[in-house]
Amino acid sequence: MIPLNIDLPKTHRLVQLSPDLYWGRLPLPFRLNHINLYIIDTNNGWVIIDAGIYGDQTRDYWRTLLGGFLSEKPIDKIIITHHHVDHIGFASELAQMTGANCYTSAAEKEHGQFLFNLSARDFSELLASHYTRYGLPEAEIVLGRNDSDRYRRFVPELPDFKEFSETNEINGCNSQWQCRLDSGHSSGQISFMNAAESLFLPTDFLLPRISPNISADMRNTDKDVLGDYLIYLKEMSNLSPAIKIYPGHDWPFKNGNDRAQALINHHNQRLELLLSEAKLRPISTSDGIDILFNRRFESHELFFASGESRAHLTHLMHQEKLEKTTEMQNGNEVDIFIA
Ligand SMILES: [Zn+2]
Asked: Is there a domain that residue 98 lies in?
């Protein structure tokens, strides 16, 4: 997508995007090297949208902002858009630093608590049991078994969340931001639309460069998360091209309708690849990784690649294009999809 002509925020600085809206960038220790956070100026104080991952860099970032630009007003609210570690990880400490309450949707709160409350052992056993049912080779199942603190490493504490829903909005000093909740990339992500000024904060659901990860739900791999996301994208494909989009990663852009359509096409191509192979032979989630990515992955990426493969197969099952059955492979029960 073509970026809007706006300079990126410098370290520990905010860029003003509209009379009430500010944009900052927090570093991340991943290949995806930053997240965007947004701050809205209201008559009750600042509303912070997303806290960043847990760690020293994030702590330094907030100390600098709170002691500098943000010091002229209190922090009214901290809104966490979804439970992923790069958005929620520092929420609890930020609440303690500011004295503000944290808000998120009921679905995101519940999903975050589920992951947070799993012991390292329960987490690795759950992951290994999915990898087994996915038909991954033993060496990759071992990677799952050793992948034990993926969530809590970056989320040492969860705040006492208050609930934010679609009936809520943020009243800026001169602006109104309507909340919407969507599922797909996560279970009930919060985003904000400012219709009067044609501004949209879609967080991770509509990104200009990367396709947001759509992974099978670890609690129910038969849940059609891709179906939910495609419903969202269909709606977004009707967005006005003029709306300025300020996403959770990368850069601000316009023509969000085209971006949504490109993401629909991307997923449809992937569904087609899986379906045409399944017409030749029954396939497992592990086969799906080969078909979709043409390579194998190490621990961190394997989690996303296998989840993505399974989410696409599950969607084809919900569309009644594939049927799920089980087969014994190397003494393990494996989910197999047949056309
Ligand atoms: Zn996310």
From this structure: yes
Neighbours of ion ligand 1 (CB under 5 A): 84, 204
Instruction: Give the structural domain span for 46.
Output: 15-276
By the 8 A CB rule, do 164 and 105 touch? Answer: yes
How far does residue 333's CA lie from ligand 1's centre (Å)? 31
- If you measure from the C-alpha of residue 214 to the centroid of ligand 1, how many angstroms do you get, rounded to a whole number? 9
Nearest to 50 by CA among 17, 11, 19, 22: 22
| Residues 237 and 265 sit within 8 Å (Cβ to Cβ) | no
Q: How many Å lie between the centroid of ligand 1 and the Cα of residue 174?
A: 29
- In order of 97, 142, 178, the CA distances from 115 in angstroms are 24, 20, 28
Distance 297 CA to ligand 1 centre (A): 20
* Total number of domains constituting the chain: 1
CA 104 to centroid of ligand 1, rounded, Å:
14
Task: Output the tens digit of pLDDT for each of the chain's 339 residues.
Answer: 778 999 999 989 999 999 999 999 998 887 778 999 999 999 999 999 999 999 999 999 999 999 999 999 999 999 999 999 999 999 999 999 999 999 999 999 999 999 999 998 999 999 999 999 999 999 999 999 988 777 988 999 999 999 999 999 999 999 999 999 999 999 999 999 999 999 999 999 999 999 999 999 999 999 999 999 999 999 999 999 999 999 999 999 999 999 999 999 999 999 999 999 999 999 999 999 999 999 999 888 999 999 999 999 999 999 999 999 999 998 999 999 999
- Domain-located, residue 10: no
Interval between CA 185 and ligand 1 midpoint (Å): 6
CATH code for the domain of 215: 3.60.15.10
End-to-end CA distance of the chain: 36
Q: How far is the CA of 250 from the centre of ligand 1 (A)?
A: 13
